[in-house]
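Subgroup meeting minutes
Present: P.N., E.W., G.H.
Scribe: E.W.

1. P.N. recapped why we're keeping a running log of single-chain structure predictions: easier to compare across weeks, and new members can see raw inputs and outputs side by side.
2. G.H. added today's entry (135 aa).
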Amino acid sequence: MGARKRETAERRKEAQRNVFFARLNDVPTSPRKMRLVADLIRGMEAFKALGVLKYSNKEAAARLEKLLRSAIANWEAKNGCKAESGELYVLWINVDGGAMLKRMRPAPQGRGHRIRKRSNHVTLYVDTLNKENQN
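Output recorded in log:
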């Protein structure tokens, strides 16, 4: 590995130490349905968002609740302290389309209609409101 490549890799690793996120790949739900739930918690305080997701009727809410708990645990692991209420908030949440399974469904007069079974990838970042109180 060359010196320039090593320096860039070290800078990228250093930047990742200050970022706290969790990623959920290949969720068998359409991205549109997941975005409806993601919009509910975007920018919200983390523990308040957990309450919103817990009592939501949407199927995607249970998956996002588990993802948010994972992101909070990642924050706690990197900082070495427990998260308190009012400290963490959902900095950024992104829902991207994933792989699509394409199936055929029989249609009248010998034709076939294409069924698209969509999936998505969710990335959720958490952070503290005041950065100067960290370590």
